Amino acid sequence: MCGPTPIPDAQAGWQTRSSGACSGACDQASDGEMLRRKEEYPFRKPNCQTVMSRPPRPAFTLAGARLGARLALPLLPGAMVFASAFGAAAAQKGLELWQTMAFSATVFAGASQMVALEVWQDPWTLSGLLVVTVLVATVNARMILMGAAIQPYMVGASRGQVAAVTFVLADANWLIGMRYHGEGGRDIGVVFGAGLMLWCGWVAATLPGHLAGAVVPDPERFGLDLVMPIFFAAMLVPMWKGARPAIPWAVAGSAALIAQALIPGYAFIIVGALAGAIAGAVIDDA
């Protein structure tokens, strides 16, 4: 067949080449011949056009998932306590057990679930639904930037793999994955395994929390609210690459603190994320 020949390329992942004889044959082919070829091969790209091959799929292995699960183990106790507290709060709000379990299994976002409970209504009104939607979207807006940051490592992955990773994507396994990839790892199963471990613990711990009504009514009293920040701080230490790359971190944190003091609600999350992203872009361009 006349047409370009795909050639592997280390940078672009593909390139094409057409021989002179091939090009001449295409030029000499009549319109009727080209139409006949199109009818015979309806799913084949027309000849003498650039053909792009898919980039190689990243690794998604069971070994990677196991590694991710092990890396997430230090976070599991704190996450399960938090989930138990959510289950207790949901029971106090009048949610039935199946509703609470479905809430944890499908949303899988502790801060958003707690925020939703704060404005929970029975019965719901249109304005109430709009309020909870905006609040939850605001709290989870950081997921947009987190997804964009991890996307380069998932180029070439199947839709099922991308769906699996993004469904269990949370702050903890995102940070685990970024550190793993920063050290040269290329198995996206690590992100999935860490997220799946946390998801299973989160859903499982919601059950006793709801049944007991109040397993840990006040996590701050026991200092359990510090488990997540301490873990994140410890994970960030190995990612230190000097003062200049850390500037966006400082900008994001400062902007979030100022916004929290001046603006009511959860807008400080968006403000901090945008400020850090802008600072990072300015530094990269400088």
What is the H-and-E element order? EEHHHHHHHHHHHHHH
* Amount of beta strand: under 5%
State the helix count. Answer: 14
Give start-end ranges of low-pLDDT stretches.
Answer: 1-30, 46-52
Q: Which structural class matches the secondary elements?
A: mainly alpha
Strand order in the largest sheet: 1-2
Number of strands: 2
Supply the number of structural domains. 3
Give a concise summary.
This protein has 286 residues and is mostly helical.
Question: What would your notes on this structure say?
Answer:
With about 290 residues, the chain is an all-alpha fold. It has three domains: about 1-55, no CATH class; about 60-240, no CATH class; about 240-285, no CATH class. It has 14 helices and two strands; from the N terminus they run ββαααααααααααααα. It has helices spanning about 20-30, 30-40, 60-70, 75-90, 95-105, 110-120, 125-140, 140-150, 160-165, 170-180, 190-210, 225-235, 245-260, 265-285, and strands spanning about 5, 15. A two-stranded antiparallel ribbon has the order 1-2. Helix 4 crosses helix 5 (about 95-105) and helix 10 runs parallel beside helix 12.
Question: What would the keywords be for this entry?
Answer:
286 residues, mainly alpha, two-stranded antiparallel ribbon, 14 helices, 2 strands, 64% helix, globular, disordered N terminus
Blueprint of the fold:
Elements: E1 5-7, E2 15-17, H1 20-28, H2 31-40, H3 62-72, H4 76-92, H5 97-107, H6 110-118, H7 126-139, H8 142-150, H9 159-167, H10 171-182, H11 189-212, H12 227-236, H13 243-262, H14 267-285
Antiparallel strand pairs: 1-2
